[in-house]
Amino acid sequence: MTTNQPIQLGEKFEQALEFALHIHRGQTRKGSQTPYFAHILGVASLVLEDGGSEIEAIAALLHDAAEDGAGQQTLDQIRVQFGEEIAGIVLDCSDTLETPKPPWRARKQAHIDHLENSRPESIRVKLADKVHNANNLLRSLHEHGPSVWDDFKGGRAGTLWYFKEMYAVFSQTRAGYLMDEFARLIEKIDGYPEG
C-alpha cells in the first residue's frame, strides 16, 4: 500500500520566491494596484493544490520571470540556479523572450501551437496561470465593468479566443478541477455584459 506523502518545499523553493520577487518588484496587475507578485503566488498555490511537485511549484513561481525579465538572459540564470527541467517549463510557459514583443495575435498563436507538444508539467503550470488570470479578469469585470477590456491588447474577442484555444490544448491531456474551473471562468467571462 502506498501513502501520499506531503510535498516538502525546500531551499530551492525559497530561492525561487526571492528570485521571482526580485524580477516582479514594482510590477502591478493590469488595471489595478495589486502587486504582480500576487499572481505568482496564486499560480504556485494552484499548482500545489492540484498535486504538483516541488519542481512544478518552483516553475510556477518563475513562469513569467523570463518573459517579464531580461528574456534569454533571465532564462539562462534560471537554468544555472534551478536546473534544466525548471528552465524548460519556464520556457514552455513563456509566449516570447523577444523585446519588443511580436504582434499579439501571432505571438499567442505561436504559443498555443508550442504548448500542443509541451510536457505535462508545463501544461499544469500554464493551466494554473490561465485559471488565475481568468479569475482575476472576472473579478475586474465585476469591479470595473467592460472598460477593463481597454487594458487587454486582444480586447474582449481576442482574449476569449485565446482562453478557448488554450482550453482546447489543455483538454488534450488534462481533466479535473482546474479544467472545470477554467471552463466555468471562460463561460462567466463570455456571458458578462459587453456594455
How would you describe this structure to a colleague?
By secondary structure, this protein is an all-alpha fold. It has a single domain (about 10-190), classed as Hypothetical protein af1432, CATH 1.10.3210. Helix content is about 65%, strand content about 0%. The chain contains 10 helices and no strands. The chain has helices at about 10-25, 35-50, 55-60, 65-70, 70-80, 85-95, 105-115, 120-145, 155-170, 175-190. The protein is globular, with a radius of gyration of 16 Å. The mean pLDDT is about 95.
Briefly note the structural class of the backbone.
Answer: mainly alpha
The major beta sheet can be summarized as: none
Low-confidence stretches: none
The helix fraction, in percent, is 55-70%
Secondary-structure element string: HHHHHHHHHH
Task: Give a summary of the structure in a few sentences.
With about 200 residues, the chain is mainly α. About 65% of the residues lie in helices and about 0% in strands.
List the helices and strands and how they pair.
Blueprint (H helix, E strand, L loop, with lengths): L10 H14 L12 H13 L4 H9 L2 H4 L3 H11 L1 H10 L10 H12 L4 H25 L10 H16 L6 H14 L5
List keywords for this structure.
195 residues, globular, single chain, 10 helices, mainly alpha, Hypothetical protein af1432
